[in-house]
Specification:
Blueprint: E1 15-19, H1 23-36, E2 40-44, H2 47-56, E3 61-65, H3 73-82, E4 91-95, H4 100-109, E5 113-116, H5 121-131
Parallel strand pairs: 1-2, 1-3, 3-4, 4-5
Helix pairs in contact: 1-5, 2-3, 3-4
């Protein structure tokens, strides 16, 4: 999915992939995304599983935790940006602590946004709109 020049609100029917090795966080994120209006939400427990899923299905947005076994969110992001088929997929990184190095590394790797846990549904919605270049009043 390529970003168009004109900023648009995200399509809430698009498939979203959530990646986190903590089952409770997957449930929370799924619930928040449903509250925001997303209806097609898949989950993966680590970056390696997510990368396999991304190569089998086109997702409109990936939301991933930084720290995970097997493949971190940062490694997943780097793999996605190196793959021409996945490089344009909007990506939001989530961290458990305010770590400036992680924020910088995520941005340099191509993350559209970085969130620190815990966060509200309103803040996640704002970051999603930002990732699509949409104005906050557009959705």
């Amino acid at each position: 999915m390529m970003k168009s020049q004109a900023a648009t609100a995200p399509d809430f029917a698009m498939p979203v992939l959530i990646v986190d090795d903590y089952a409770a966080m997957l449930r929370v994120l799924r619930s928040i995304l449903a509250t925001i209006g997303f209806t097609d939400i898949d989950v993966a427990k680590d970056g390696a599983t997510a990368l396999d899923m991304l190569r089998r299905r086109t997702y409109g947005l990936v939301i991933s935790d930084w720290h995970m076994a097997q493949m971190s969110g940062h490694d997943l992001l780097r793999e996605m940006k190196a793959d021409a088929e996945l490089a344009a997929t909007p990506f939001i990184m989530i961290g458990a602590e305010p770590n400036f190095q992680h924020l910088v590394a995520a941005r340099q790797a191509g993350a559209n946004a970085f969130l620190i846990k815990p966060f509200s549904a309103a803040l996640l919605r704002e970051k999603i709109l930002d990732a699509f270049g949409a104005t906050r009043g557009a959705a």
